[in-house]
Amino acid sequence: MSDHLPGPQLRRGDQLPRLVATAPGRRGRRVARQARRVETAGLAPPFVDGGAICWSEALGSNVLDVDGNRYVDLTSGFGVAAVGHRHPAVVRAIRRQAGRLIHGLGDAQGHTARAELAAVLARRVPISGARVAFAVSGADAVELAVKTALLATRRHRIVAFRPSYHGLTFGALALTSRGHFRSPFTRHLHRQVRHLPYGCDLALLRTSFESEPVAALVVEPIVGREGVIVPPAGWLQAVHALCRRYEVLFVVDEILTGCGRTGRWFAVEHDGIEPDLLCCGKALAGGMPLAAVVGRAAIMAAWDSPGEARHTATFVAHPLACAAALAALEVISRQRLVARAAALGRRFGSALRDWPGRIHAVREVRGRGALWGIEWKTAAAAHAFVESARRRGLLLLGGGEQGRVTQLLPALTMADRQLEYAVRALSQAASE
Hints:
Elements: H1 26-38, E1 55-59, E2 62-65, E3 70-73, H2 88-98, H3 112-124, E4 130-135, H4 138-153, E5 157-162, H5 170-175, H6 179-182, E6 193-197, H7 202-211, E7 214-219, H8 235-245, E8 249-253, E9 277-280, E10 291-296, H9 297-300, H10 319-334, H11 337-352, H12 355-358, E11 362-368, E12 371-376, H13 379-391, E13 394-395, E14 397-399, E15 405-408, H14 416-431
Parallel strand pairs: 3-13, 5-6, 5-7, 7-8, 8-9
Antiparallel strand pairs: 1-2, 2-3, 4-10, 9-10, 11-12, 12-15, 14-15
């Protein structure tokens, strides 16, 4: 099928929507039929019954589907394309690296892009004397962080929160709260994880720490996929202080919130916290698969041992991904995208904050920087809003265990005219 598609059509990524066909149209339905024949139901996009579009290309904040419709993307690919889709600097870096080295030997032998990126990350995170360990995905980074805590403390218990989303591999799934993901595999999950309510009374934490030694507390500084929940003022600082008091490692999952998303390089910086371990990913490599755990040197030293690495993967610190990450981090810095995220937050905040009082179906609006969630009173209202926005050329994501939260995750490079169009169109969609 790809042989019959036209070449790249998006020349700019700052354009407004242009809808020319019902989605999914003829080409989209053709892809759906192919997917239905060969992909596993439940693990593939809902092409057929959900009417999902099929992406053809993306640039900046624009997405083009195979039927020729151009959208403004308010998902930035699950937050991955924080610098925009197909940023020229990232593309150039990948091409240069591909001309030299596409694949190496993972943990067995290094390469220059990996060494350079580790140094850049160690300087950027809010951790003194940091050391870096690379992972291939966000879930892999969470697995690595938990293993690090268990090795470093020689304790077994972990405290996590509900709601939370840390990934779906077995170690990460033990921390993730949603029952839909956990229930088929519950008997196989790590049984030493205790979930407490996000933003809970500190007495609950204190009791948990005192009942039995705890290796680590794993927390999202802002709950992402499970509802975009900003913690109460001062809560993270108080939790961090308790962890220090009881010698519990404070592990932050910044896979979604890192790399400038919330108006700081990392969300814990809003609270002036220095974590013990920090997981980052998604936006880190500008669209390529890469994640990392960055931690205090004394803790990361728990991995020091003779013989083969105890946690690795064939594609860990992949050369193309490392080159892309170096370019993406440079773009964030050079284009001042952290400040841009804060500005996006102010604009979305001013546009959305009165929705609960103005739009009957909206329960709450919350967010920070370029990460916002609109909680609806019913899942049906949330779904209708996403569909109404798509008819206006906006791509959105739903979230939360009950499917009642719409997420806004625009690229930090989003053009002003796209932003203003999105604000107007979202209001129209909510009022429909």
